[in-house]
Design brief:
Two copies of one chain form a homodimer. Chain A has an eight-stranded parallel beta barrel with strand order 4-5-6-10-11-12-13-14, surrounded by five helices. In chain A, strands 1-2-3 form a three-stranded antiparallel sheet. The first copy, chain A, has a three-stranded antiparallel sheet with strand order 7-8-9. Chain A is an alpha/beta fold. Chain A folds into two domains: 261 residues, Queuine tRNA-ribosyltransferase-like (TIM Barrel), CATH 3.20.20.105; 95 residues, no CATH class. The first copy, chain A, contains 15 helices and 16 strands. The longest helix of chain A has 28 residues. In chain A, strand 11, helix 8 and strand 12 form a beta-alpha-beta unit. The first copy, chain A, is 43% helix and 19% strand. Chains A and B meet through helix 13 and helix 14 of A and helix 13 and helix 14 of B.
């Protein structure tokens, strides 16, 4: 059964497209990058900074939130938006990916996945139905089906088994989502590892079930970028053109540009905040390691032309000092600088696609990165 | 020789007083609380938040900054204000206190103190002259003399020896400060442990040397609050009335009110940020431990009447969740909440002293703290 469509493509340039996704808590401009608020918070950032950086939507991790503080508790407190004070759209993952990467003693069965909490060892079962129930309790704008994601490289048989299981879970997820409040969305997840045939089969089967949007899962799990981009290229033509396409867990700025060029509309990744905590800055000059001694005496900002106050307002010498000293402010500033850079990159892509100049934007951007950082003084 | 006076007492109520201290980077309203930016940064706070919270002046730690990134480097980068972007007044300590508490293999001699850096083991000598030189390189508005601080309880002989040494270092500090740019200030530090006679002798001798202001050092080093307040009471009458009086390293909100009532004008302490990092909030209801399970389901803010956005805008349940999850945002929000509460307390005292209602303000404030937090729901 077809579900109502809340996505409108408003511009195309080659395979790249820009659009508007209307969610209960607001409109998301695509291509969109969703910063990740794992446990109901962005590491090192205040919510107002996420908004100021230009993010329309953020991602919350179901696995973490169901363990602590608990989905029922968040529901009683008015949902994730009221709980966190982030009043814009929010997408929640199904919890499946973190179960695979964090939980102990996990067992995948037809009915669902059983595991023990990494926090206190409690035995928990996550089924497609429970994953949807949890996400409805959280009140997220966009829920994801439970799927099984296989780390690459993997045996073909394992990839196919996980893909088929994910499809059966997709059907159960959709049934469980019936009766959700109007405007809330459910996305299916394409699996199939690095096998184009499995990917296409997964995409077509999901389209047959019918979702508000479609994600490509199981990439950025260890394979080279070229493999990832090839899989995207093989998969996108089998995805409905009128629905948002979401590439899960990706990636570097270069990944984003490459994936948008191949028709992807949405992304999420911890990279801007995680790398920020490790002293790395993303700018139009590429990735910059503030820990490097070359910055110790450099009074210049990271990028004096940036619209983000911290990117143009703090010297490299100060950021270097904060990183070297392990001061929280260093992680805070670099996380903000990176989230803002990611958002400005998305905004640049959206504008270029609308103008029909995406290819020029892409070349200019890649050229800036490959030229590298300012020469040392 | 008398130094120019940049302090004006504009109101008195009993021993309490309110005034204005004019520093090169701005005017400090007293009684003033200085948040501590140990290594050139406030832990968990952006500089704009310090300003928004109402702080006129902050403290930087000379010991940390001389080791990393180095005073000469900060001078080359335009001084501490330009380096950090904090453009208001800044006081720096002499480095002596941290040498005593952090450095290794320290030896106090007449000439100065030798020690090894806790970061890389480098052998360093800090003399009264070098302490002043470092602070002038940093460009702080207010420099402190090098002193020797003895942890209490201590033998009378040790206390007296350290006090006399601190006086000789005070004279050398003052000589070293000659030629400092106009408007920059040097404070002497009264020592003498818990001996009122030594405290008075130290205060009188320092007044004879002549400083821009006078600090009481060597308190809040392990003695009960009653001992501290008694020493303040014994010491203040020997301090010049027209100069600012600074109680170093103090303290709890209750300490601040008690000390202001005894004529103190300035304070610094890491408590608001350190306790914030440990899940503690200071409010008009006293100190609140957000880690406590009673907050887990409580949708109420810490204080709905607070003028600080985070104090009234986040639920206790959310703050509890952040603290329990170890999310940086919890430390960030609580540090801001606490710094803002300290500043609102100072503002309340300043206004009450000016109005002649300090005693009522004090009683009302203590009553609020002793009534304790809101009843659990």
């Amino acid at each position: 059964m077809s579900l109502p469509n809340h996505f409108e493509v408003v511009g195309r340039d080659g395979e790249a497209r820009t659009g508007l996704l209307t969610a209960p808590h607001g409109v998301v401009r695509t291509p969109a990058f969703m910063p990740v608020g794992t446990q109901g918070a962005m590491k090192g950032l205040q919510w107002c900074e996420i908004r100021d950086a230009g993010a329309d939507i953020v991602l919350g991790n179901t696995y973490h939130l169901m363990l602590r503080p608990g989905a029922e508790r968040i529901a009683e407190l008015g949902g994730l938006q009221r709980f966190t004070t982030w009043d814009g759209p929010m997408l929640t993952d199904s919890g499946g990916f973190q179960v695979m990467s964090l939980a102990q003693l996990r067992k995948v069965k037809e009915h669902g996945v059983t595991f023990r909490s990494h926090i206190d060892g409690t035995a928990i079962e996550l089924t497609p139905e429970r994953a949807i129930e949890v996400q409805r309790l959280l009140g997220s704008d966009i829920a994801m089906q439970l799927d099984e994601c296989v780390r690459l490289p993997a045996e073909h048989g394992d990839i196919e088994r996980a893909m088929q299981l994910s499809l059966r879970w997709a059907e159960r997820s959709k049934r469980a989502f019936e009766g959700a409040p109007a405007g809330h969305m459910l996305f299916g997840i394409i699996q199939g590892g690095d096998d184009p045939e499995l990917r296409r089969a997964s995409a077509r089967a999901l389209a047959g079930i019918g979702f508000h949007g479609y994600a490509i899962g199981g990439l950025a799990v260890g394979e080279p970028q070229a493999v990832m981009l090839a899989i995207i290229e093989e998969t996108v033509p089998s995805m409905p053109t009128d629905r948002p396409r979401y590439l899960m867990g990706v990636g570097t700025p270069d990944d984003l540009v490459g994936a948008v060029a191949r028709g992807i509309d949405m992304f999420d990744c911890v990279m801007p905040t995680r790398n920020g905590r490790h002293g790395m800055a993303f700018t139009r000059f590429g990735q910059i390691n503030l820990r490097n001694a070359r910055h110790a005496d450099d009074p210049r900002p990271l990028d004096e032309e940036s619209s983000w106050p911290a990117t143009r307002g703090y010297s490299r010498a100060y950021l270097h000092h904060l990183v070297r000293s392990g001061e929280t402010l260093g992680a805070m500033l670099l996380s903000g600088i990176n989230v803002a850079y990611y958002q400005s990159l998305m905004q640049g892509m959206r504008a270029a696609i609308a103008d029909g100049t995406f290819q020029q934007f892409r070349e200019r951007t890649l050229e800036g990165w490959s030229r590298g950082d300012l020469a040392a003084r």
